[in-house]
Structure formats: structure tokens, C-alpha cells
Amino acid sequence: MTRLDELPLRADLRGQHPYGAPQLDVPVRLNTNENPHPPSPELAAEIGAAAAAAAAGLNRYPDREATALRADLAAYLSARSGAELRPEQVWAANGSNEILQQLLQAFGGPGRRAMGFEPSYSMHRLLAMGTATAWVPGRRDAAAFGLDASDAVEQVRRQRPDVVLVCSPNNPTGTALDRAVVEAVYDAAPGVVVVDEAYAEFSHRPSVLDLLAGRPRLVVTRTMSKAFALAGARVGYLAADPAVVDAVRLVRLPYHLSALTQAAARAALARADELLATVEAVKAERDRIVDGLRALGLDVVDSDANFVLFGRFDDQAAVWQALLDRGVLVRDVGLAGWLRVTAGTHDEVDAFLEATRDGIGSW
Ligand SMILES: *Cc1c(COP(=O)(O)O)cnc(C)c1O
Description:
Distance between the termini: 41 Å
Number of domains: 2
CATH topology of the largest domain: Aspartate Aminotransferase, domain 2
CATH superfamily of the largest domain: Type I PLP-dependent aspartate aminotransferase-like (Major domain)
Number of strands: 12
CATH class of the largest domain: Alpha Beta
Number of helices: 12
Shape: globular
Structural class: alpha/beta
Bound molecules: pyridoxal-5'-phosphate
Strand order of the largest sheet: 2-8-7-6-5-3-4
Largest sheet: 7 strands, mixed
Radius of gyration: 21 Å
Helix content: 25-40%
Strand content: 5-15%
Order of helices and strands: EHHEHEHEHEHEEEHHHHEEHEEH
């Protein structure tokens, strides 16, 4: 067996570990912010039929431009946000992680720097590393994990990064940002500003999609993995000026999005109302988690997403293990004192709250 460190690996990848939450087969899995409600049998059959139709043409490469899917996504975004988005402003890929990677390939890269406001989605930093983009760790306020416009602007002015990544609602804290922060960061930033709206559908704050007009360096990324309950299909997308789409075309792999994925995504989008109907139920469970944990005397960060950050623990890894021992898998995001739990079904949330109540005396 060859060990990894015996290979001629890039120096900056040496000693690193692959990203990923443990995929454990336990009864209650609340660790990756998925929607706990699977597609209905009818919708699953429709997605299957669409995939079967696409399969009949799999001898040919897929539409490299994903034209029909991008038109559907533009129509979906326009209908929900009130912003008028054209298909040329939308780009799709295998999850928004691939979208973010393409953006960093095009606008970051060797000699360039990307900045995020931490704690935030750790993939932003890892994607920067993978694209040889230097990472600049910006900061949120330590008390409530918020970020106000003047603080963000000050950090951006000082660092002048080529790419700024802003996550709203922010993973893992759940904090949604005021749009004024995005406007101010855009005005202060010399380069591209990416707003990661993976959890936008859960938020009480409106999307910043309507800020795209007249802001060619602004990019909004979205995903079908969370509210849309389609994490397994791997579909993410962006909305921006058409020139940004032209830029990511320079770095995307040819035929990156399979015909099966495009067909499945379109079938799901055709039933967007049905898929998003679970959002209110998920938010209700999120609020039940917040109330339940506060009633236990724990610290809980206000959440605008489908997950909750809670603490504080002297040893969050031990609490993570104790919950796992009770059959409940939550996420240790590596933030000292805190754990993150996803809003699951009513029964899953009951199980989580019970396990926490059970264990709390000993933590
Ligand atoms: C889950 C998540 C994503 C989505 O990843 P996909 O590749 O679309 O599944 C993107 N950004 C954030 C902040 C997330 O939490």
C-alpha cells in the first residue's frame, strides 16, 4: 500500500483531509442540512420517466449549455424573486459547490485571493485551496455571528480580495444578512462578490437577486440540494450578468452536466410548488428546535435556515458522540463549543430533543 505522503502531491495539499461529514447509518441523521421529506412517489416516478426518456439518447453528449434547464431556472427565479432574469444570466452545474469552484477557477486562482466571513461554510475555504486561490479569513462578530455593513466594508477595504464570498443565510450559524451588507460590500470590493444563497428559501429576508441589475461583479448562487429536497441529484446554479456566465464557460468541463441530471432537474422544477411545500414544515421544526434547546438552558443562535447552531459546550466533540450513542447524528463543524443540527421530521426532532434532554445533565 502506497501512503498518500509518498506520492508527489501538491505541497499545499499535503497533510490535508478530505471534506465531508461522516455518512453513518443511524436512525436520526440531522447532520447535512438535507430536506427530510423525500419526493412523493408520483414525483419520483416523473423524475424517473424523464431520466428514462433522456437515457434513450445517451449515445450522444448532453446539451453542453443546458439551455432548457437554464430557461426553467430563470423562470423559477423570476417568478419567486420579482427580479427579471433571462436564461443567459443563469448557469447550472453539479451542485452549487461546482458552481463555486468554477467561479474561483475563473476569478481566483494562483496569485489571487478570496475572502469569506468566518465562521462560514468551510467549503468556501477548501474550494479556494483546491483552485490555488489564497484564502483570507474575514470575521463575523463574535457574540451573535452577525456582520454589519461598516465592519464588512472595513475588512474588504483592508484586504482588497479578488473574490468575496458572503453566505446568507450563513452556514453554520443560520444568520441571514441585511441586503445593505451586500450592497456595501459590492461597492467596497474591487472584484467579484458571490452571495451563497443555498438556504434562501428558508429565510424571512428576501433574496438579493434583484440587486443583480447594474452590478456585473455580483453573483448569486443557489442549489436544489436543500429546500428543493434534491441533494442526491446534484444540481446547483448561479444568477449573474451574462458576462459572468461567459467567464465560467472558460473553465467548465465540456458536457459537465449529464443529460440525466438535466432531465431530472427539469422534471423536479416543473413541480417546484410541491417540492417547496415542505419548507414551512421544516421551518416549524427548526423553530421547535430553537425553543426546545432554549428551554433546556442552552445557547442557540437565531436561524433563518433549516438548521440550528447550539452550545455552548466545554467539549462539543464529546456531546456529538453522546448524541450519536443515543442514535442521533448532528454536525461538529469544528467551531469550539458549538454543534449544528438540521431540522428533520417531527419525529426526528422529538428524538433529538429527547436525546439532548437526556444527556444534558452530564455535559
Ligand atoms: C449545502 C450548501 C451548499 C450546496 O451544495 P450543493 O453542492 O449544491 O449540494 C452550498 N453552500 C452552502 C453554504 C451550503 O450549506
